[in-house]
Design goal:
Layout: H1 4-7, E1 13-17, H2 28-40, E2 45-49, H3 51-57, E3 64-68, H4 82-90, E4 95-99, H5 111-120, E5 124-128, H6 132-140, E6 145-147, H7 165-174, E7 179-182, H8 188-196, E8 201-204, H9 206-209, H10 211-223
Parallel strand pairs: 1-2, 1-8, 2-3, 3-4, 4-5, 5-6, 6-7, 7-8
Length: 230
């Protein structure tokens, strides 16, 4: 039986509310306001990064909260240690997103150790994967759901222009746990395509909550437009 926290996001949109280092929106209070805004818009869940952000968001939303911690930007950097994962649970995460690849983890522990610790603390685990082999490894380690978050970023698959629908379909066909689509989902049509391909839920981040990137898209389009004749 699927846990009720996962059931609450089935077929729904989860919005990733994260700001990058050095950006004006990099503030727990701002991310909490963004989280409230996306829930008001109909999001069935929120994905957030950083302990302070999770602590700020948790009291303000009553939807499923997927939490993670990022350490660096290379290798295993998404909730890389058992301690990081448990900190996310303490901060209020219902589901902890962790690196679900087969790469060595900074604390030297296998993925199964993180999963076991999170389960013992009363939360679930979403394994962010980059390939089918990653996903099979994560399911064997006890992950409750699989995300396509790292597809195209681990060297095993090319970076697709939109979501990696081929990988998504492969995972849905071969796994017995929910598969959550995430990564390069740029518009509602992409999101719907993911659901039609069998995704249990869809996570969208930059296309909704990253105004710098959204503005850059609009500005770039206008910049390349031929000037009007006088």
């Amino acid at each position: 039986m699927i846990d009720s926290r996962l059931v609450s996001i089935e077929g729904r949109l989860v919005v990733s509310c994260q700001a990058y280092p050095g950006e004006p929106m990099r503030s727990p209070a701002i991310m909490a306001a963004v989280a409230q805004s996306v829930v008001a818009g109909g999001a069935g869940g929120v994905r957030a990064q950083g302990i302070e952000d999770l602590e700020a968001i948790r009291p303000l939303v009553d939807v499923c909260l997927i939490g993670l911690v990022k350490r660096g930007a290379d290798g295993v950097f998404i909730t890389p240690t058992v301690t990081d994962a448990l900190d996310c649970v303490t901060a209020g995460a219902d589901i902890v997103a962790v690196d679900g690849t087969r790469r060595d983890r900074p604390d030297g522990q296998p993925l199964a150790a993180t999963v076991a610790a999170v389960h013992a603390a009363g939360a679930l685990v979403m394994a962010d994967c980059g390939s089918l082999d990653d996903a099979l490894y994560s399911v064997a380690a006890g992950a409750d759901c699989i995300g396509t978050t790292l597809a195209g970023y681990t060297g095993e698959r090319p970076i697709t222009r939109g979501p990696d629908l081929d990988l998504l379909k492969e995972l849905v066909a071969q796994l017995t746990v929910p598969v959550i689509a995430e990564g390069r989902i740029r518009n509602p049509d992409d999101a719907l395509a993911c659901l039609n391909a069998g995704a249990y839920a869809v996570v969208v981040g930059s296309a909704i909550t990253h105004p710098t990137r959204i503005t850059r898209t609009f500005a770039g389009q206008l910049t390349h437009h031929a000037p009007r004749k006088k």
